[in-house]
Design brief:
By secondary structure, the chain is α/β, with parallel strands linked by helices. 45% of the residues lie in helices and 19% in strands. Helix 2 runs parallel beside helix 8.
Length: 199
């Protein structure tokens, strides 16, 4: 299967990588990343897509950004919060276990991982490449990832695409989860997307 096939809510899981205090203060366009990631999680919630949130060494970098954590805590879907020290999430046993728990019975080759987080050129990129090497499909939402500088972000997105990731956005993901305007979640999707323009 192509790494850029349409995403399916029944096989998807959203992974939010290290949106933490000290780092959030330094990245390119933090407001966009926060708003888009919050929307992505809310959209996952109405489509029954589980969410795994990670924190890289929170003792040093601080906890997840409060607004992001508040949305995560409010989710009704299956969710896991993983504290790690490995830069690439797939290198952490707790992360691998969390993915298996929230999507039991889905073969790796059929699992679709939707990625948000920071930093694009470090933890996000290592996570994406490791997920791809394990045989999973990876979709990176470009507006939900960033780094300390646009060049780091841009070149990381290019490298992830070269490795086989699909570069997408949270709106495309949500409409692919729905497929049809008669989907039961369409009204809520519209409400989320109309709640304010991203910039």
């Amino acid at each position: 299967m192509s790494g850029c096939e349409l995403v399916d809510a029944r096989r998807s899981v959203v992974v939010v990588v290290d949106l933490q205090g000290k780092l959030m203060e330094m990245i390119h366009r933090p407001a966009l990343v926060i708003a888009a990631t919050e929307r992505l999680m809310k959209l996952a919630d109405i489509h029954g897509v589980p969410v795994v949130l990670t924190e890289q060494y929170p003792q040093g970098l601080g906890p997840t950004y409060p607004e992001v954590l508040a949305v995560f805590d409010s989710l009704a879907v299956e969710k896991r919060r993983v504290i790690k020290t490995s830069f690439g999430c797939w290198g952490d046993e707790g992360f691998r276990r969390a993915l298996a728990e929230v999507r039991p019975g889905i073969p790796l080759a059929e699992r679709q991982v939707i990625v948000a987080g920071i930093e694009s050129h470090v933890c996000v990129m290592q996570t994406v490449i490791e997920l791809l090497r394990s045989g999973q499909q990876v979709h990176v939402c470009w507006e939900c990832v960033s780094s300390r500088g646009e060049e780091y972000r841009r070149h990381a997105l290019e490298r992830m695409a070269q490795a086989g990731a699909c570069i997408t956005n949270h709106e495309s993901v949500a409409f692919e989860w729905e497929r049809d305007k008669n989907h039961a979640g369409f009204r809520k999707l519209n409400q989320i997307l109309r709640a304010g323009q991203l910039s």
